[in-house]
Amino acid sequence: MRDGDFFRRWMTVATAAVEQEAPRLTELDSPIGDADHGSNLLRGFTAVRAALEAEPATGPGAVLVLAGRTLISTVGGASGPLYGTLLRRTGKELGEAAEVSDEELRKALYAGVGAVAQLGGAAPGDKTMLDALVPGVAELGTSYRAAAQAAERGSLATVPMLARKGRASYLGERSIGHQDPGATSAALLLAALADAADAGDAGGAA
Ligand code: ADP
Ligand code: MG
To answer: In CATH, what number is assigned to the domain containing residue 177?
Structure first.
């Protein structure tokens, strides 16, 4: 079972990954965007860490709802409301329980990704974060690491795609040949989940 600390660990590892990868995410957002994806997520996840530190005793659902709400209110770019919706919706699905099973988390994340698709109107193949999130979540039934690897492959598969949603779509054919920054950060988020699970399983705490 996964408790509130597991979800805090996920957000802490995700924040560290964003801190490390922010320059690369911004660089990917240069040719097909406005060069702010790394700084957007850095601002958002730094605020998530602060918000979670200010609210110590909370269960799985509350951790993700707070994280999602914080991303929505601190990130100006398209990715803030989209990632915010992912976490908030996933957290709402988890509800008030003090601990959730991996199967409950899989179903909740599936609903969260559905909410992202609904909000942004994108589908796999449109060269967005969904190209990593959808294959990633589909592998959750195998393992967290398999999900992270599928998301990573999904992010690499955005290179030859033509962008149909978001800022990159303004470029039309010129969006081809570049990796989508949001798909890249989505793979980081699922890798952070796998890292959090490894740490918990190793310590026997989760
Ligand atoms: P902005 O585009 O406003 O500058 P960011 O640079 O932070 O915001 O995020 C860009 C990323 O957001 C894109 O690489 C893409 O993955 C994702 N994105 C943009 N629009 C959509 C959408 N409608 N649906 C899903 N993801 C989207
Ligand atoms: Mg941008």
So the answer is: 1.25.40.340
C-alpha 191, offset from chain centre: 9
Domain assignment of residue 169, given as a range: 2-198
User: Could you say which ligand is closest to the alpha carbon of residue 85?
Assistant: 1
What is the number of domains present in the chain? Answer: 1
Structure token digits, residue 21 = 């990868």
Nearest Cα residue to atom 13 of ligand 1: 182
- Compute the mean pLDDT over every residue in the chain, rounded to the nearest whole number: 96
For residue 11, report the distance from its CA to the centre of ligand 1, in Å.
20
Mean local confidence (pLDDT), 46-53: 97
- Tell whether 204 is covered by a domain: no
Q: How many CA atoms lie within 13 A of 132 on its CB side?
A: 25
Please determine, for residue 18, whether its predicted confidence score (pLDDT) is greater than 50: yes
CB-CB contact of 183 with 132 (8 Å): yes
Instruction: Output the pLDDT for position 190.
Output: 98
**Plot region of 179 (φ>0 → left; ψ -120 to 50 → alpha; else → beta):** beta
Centroid of ligand 1 to alpha carbon of 119 (angstroms) = 12
User: The tokens of 125 are what?
Assistant: 């193949």
Taken in order 192, 131, 139, 91, is the CA torsion positive or negative?
positive
Structural domain contains residue 203: no
13 Cα to the center of ligand 2, angstroms: 23
Residues near ligand 1 with C-beta < 6 Å?
Answer: 29, 33-34, 36-37, 40, 77-79, 82, 120-122, 128-130, 165-167, 180-183
